[in-house]
Amino acid sequence: MNQHHVYGKSYKGTAAENYQRFFVPAIGAPVADDLIAIADLQPGERVLDIACGTGVVTRLAAERVGATGSVTGLDINPGMLAVARSATPPHLSIDWREANAESLPFPDNAFDVVLCQMGLQFVSGKLTALREMRRVLERGGRAVISVPGPKPPLFAIMTDALARHLSQEAAAFGDLVFSMHDIDEIKELMRSAGFGNADVEAKPKNLRLPAPADFLWQYIHSTPLAEPATQADEATRAALQREVCERWKEFVEDDFLSLQVGMTTATALK
Ligand SMILES: C[S@@+](CC[C@H](N)C(=O)[O-])C[C@H]1O[C@@H](n2cnc3c(N)ncnc32)[C@H](O)[C@@H]1O
After folding, report:
1. How far is the CA of 29 from the centre of ligand 1 (A)?
2. Which of 20, 52, 54, 75 should be mutated for ligand 1, with most atoms under 8 A from CB?
3. What is the CATH topology of the domain spanning 14-152+172-209+258-269?
4. Do the bridges between strand 199-209 and strand 111-117 make them parallel or antiparallel, or are there none, so unpaired?
5. What percent of the chain has pLDDT over 90?
6. Ligand 1 centre and the CA of 34: distance in Å?
7. Distance CA 238, CA 116 (A)
8. Could you tell me if 34 and 263 are in contact, meaning their C-beta atoms sit under 8 angstroms apart?
9. Are strands 70-75 and 199-209 parallel, antiparallel or unpaired?
10. 9 with 230: CB under 8 angstroms?
11. CA 255 from chain center: how many Å?
């Protein structure tokens, strides 16, 4: 057991800072490479990255479209945007906007490409957000949206333990992350939003995550789970770590956790 964590207590920084430091290298960046490959961005294109978080996709998009293109990263959480700004090298010019995906502060037909990686599942008005994505796209422009799920066994173990040791609300966050993966449901949503020609495809993604106790606390401290976990007493955090790490043994390979997660990607033209 990794005593140096003091059961996660030693993690400093905001959830947004930890998201960039831990979640992005382990999960966000490898998944972004796939989304960017599908988007096939061209120099000069105007790109909007919705629910951009700390900007892993946004920065890759800015590299691709170059100085003749333009890239906007939009998120509802100012803490994520502050980290996004500070993680962006000076040679990339990105317009960071704080707004809700359900009400985009842009005119019609303003972008060639709209991207949204692992964000739509958190938006309560999904149909409204998809209609907004379509509205701001130029005719012939494309939307590329990815969502994770169904909940992989490794995360089912974590949410079980969160429910038992922290709260039902904490477990519900784990459920929400993987709540949008039904291909027919996504196709229907896209159709209702006006995308007549959506292609929706699910593919497994293999990820190599840090060792169990490291990944458990890194994930918790990169998400809204940080608050309830920090408020829990040490015995509770120790019990949570003990249970999760014991049940994660079957996913350990050479001290790393091996995760296979389904990624569903929807692509559509306006
Ligand atoms: C898991 S993060 C994904 C961030 C980034 N796309 C990535 O792949 O690293 C989900 C993001 O969705 C944002 N979000 C949730 N609801 C939103 C909404 N209604 N409008 C805009 N952003 C939202 C959150 O603030 C968070 O930054």
Report:
1. 15
2. 75
3. Rossmann fold (3.40.50)
4. unpaired
5. 94
6. 18
7. 36
8. yes
9. unpaired
10. yes
11. 25
| 3-state DSSP assignment of residue 270 | coil
How many Å separate Cα 262 from the centre of its chain?
13
**Ligand 1, pocket residues at CB < 6 Å:** 28, 51-53, 56-57, 75-77, 80, 100-102, 117-119, 122-123
Length of the chain: 270
Report which secondary-structure segment, H or E, holds 252: strand 252-253
Query: pLDDT tens digits for 158-172?
Result: 999 999 999 999 999
Two structure tokens written together for 7: 């059961």
Question: Once rounded to an integer, what is the mean pLDDT over residues 249-260?
Answer: 96
User: Beta-carbon neighbour count of residue 96 at 10 Å?
Assistant: 20
What is the rounded CA–CA span in Å between residue 130 and residue 145? 10
25, 54 contact by CB (below 8 A): no
Q: What is the identity of the amino acid at 169?
A: E
Query: For 25-51, how does the pLDDT look when each residue is reduced to its tens digit (9 = 90+)?
Result: 999 999 999 999 999 999 999 999 999
